[in-house]
Amino acid sequence: FLSHSLQAKMSRPVQARRLEGIDKNIWVEFVKLAATYSKVNLGQGFPDFPAPDFLTEAFSRALGGGSHMLHQYTRAFGHPPLVKVLAQFFEKLLGRDLDPMTNVMVTVGAYQALFCCFQALVDEGDEVIIIEPFFDCYEPMVKMAGGTPVFVPLRPNPPKDGKLMSSADWQLDPAELASKFSERTKAIVLNSPNNPLGKVFSRGELGLIAELCVKHDVLCISDEVYEWLVYDGKQHIRIASLEGMWERTVIIGSAGKTFSATGWKVGWVVGPDRLLKHLRTVHQNSVYHCATIAQEAVAQGFQRELMLYGKPESYFVQLPKELQQKRDWLVQSLDAVGMKPIIPEGTYFLVADISQFKSDVPDVPNSDEPYDHRFAKWMVKNKGLAAIPLSAFYSEAHKNNYTNFIRFCFAKEEATLKAANEILQKWKQEKTS
Asked: Is-contact 190 209, C-beta < 8 A?
């Protein structure tokens, strides 16, 4: 009798409505596939080379010889040495005075920073404009907050001269972008440099977005985690530095991407107190606090970079140089076998056109799975090379237009990139023999 009554009680739905339709996650599936089959993993976005010595040494010092209080809670909204140095650094970058206690908040990676933004600033029925392709968590996070995502794609304009395409050739249509703004628009999410394309938005493009934000009184959630990873002499322009944008922009950054230490999960938000005070409310009622020792080590990393700012020995100068070389190797490898790369201006990702390889992957009649998903799965299982399908970075409405591309990560050791090249060369030989 008892067990029957327990079963009867368990029949009501347990899942909160806000989770409906957002349970699928590309990373869960493809990380598992890569772990099972890949010889070379160029899928997930993390370096397989070590973080810089000065950073790991700072961590060891904090762990061993540092104050025993570094093993305890620190200030909930950010370890004082870290928010102070971040404020100093961003004062330089933005050309304005910042209060470390009110204009900076430390989060558990950029991921939690994004979560705080959407939960704190987006209400039921608010519309949030997302530029496609987009980092895949933006859409479910907007929906969880009760908001409605509104998508606007970057549209490719291939060069006429047969040259390889660049991420700069993917552009917003100004009229199309303007048409997405309405009285229901609460925010736009900007990701520059953009994951997955590697596009670095130009001053003109940012000016267009800023003008629309000011005109419609819209907030900007600016995901700038790849701010130091720009190539070919390009410049990362911060939208908060444009006229009328500081008061309406939250800047998101990441020590994981900045210092090649993604597992530390130290992120931050920089912005006006009128916005950050609401993010602090979400933070204190969810995570509350981030690991003290990791924050201490990141603070020391930034102290070093502040002293070396703009100098050749700065890590922020050295890392993009190294990565640009790795990008160029992968571009050459892919181009040589006929997988057409789109040359990224920033980030550590590169998107490649797989049209010429379609004949390798058997067609599945009546399949509703996008072609690039099938291709990426087939490639990891049959060739041992892991990458991520590009359509995973698009909304349902647009994903079928972009199923001829996959995304590779080139923030890898030389040996990893060489092994990928060997797989590609062998594959090309098999195709031509």
From this structure: yes
State the Cα–Cα distance between residues 125 and 182, nearest whole angstrom: 13
pLDDT, one tens digit per residue, over 192-214 is 999 999 999 999 999 999 999 99
Q: How far is CA 377 from the centre of its chain?
A: 22
Predicted TM-score (pTM) of the model is 0.95
Pairing of the two strands 249-254 and 219-223: parallel
Residue 424: partners with Cβ closer than 8 Å, 6 or more residues away: 333, 334, 336, 337, 339, 385
Predicted local confidence at residue 6, as pLDDT:
57
Residue 371 tokens, joined: 């072609």
Domains of the chain: 24-51+315-432 (3.90.1150.10), 53-308 (3.40.640.10)
Greatest alpha-carbon span in the chain: 78
Euclidean distance between CA atoms 179 and 324, whole angstroms = 36
CB 89 within 8 A of CB 352: no
- Alpha-carbon distance of 425 to 414, in angstroms, equals 16
* Separation in Å, CA 180 to CA 31, 53, 105, 173, 304: 34, 46, 30, 11, 43
Q: Given CA atoms 295, 89, 301, 417 in this order, what sign does their dihedral have?
A: positive
Residues 346, 263: Cα–Cα separation, whole Å: 21
Q: What are phi and psi of 17, to 5 degrees?
A: -60, -30
Cβ pair 207, 238 in contact under 8 A: no
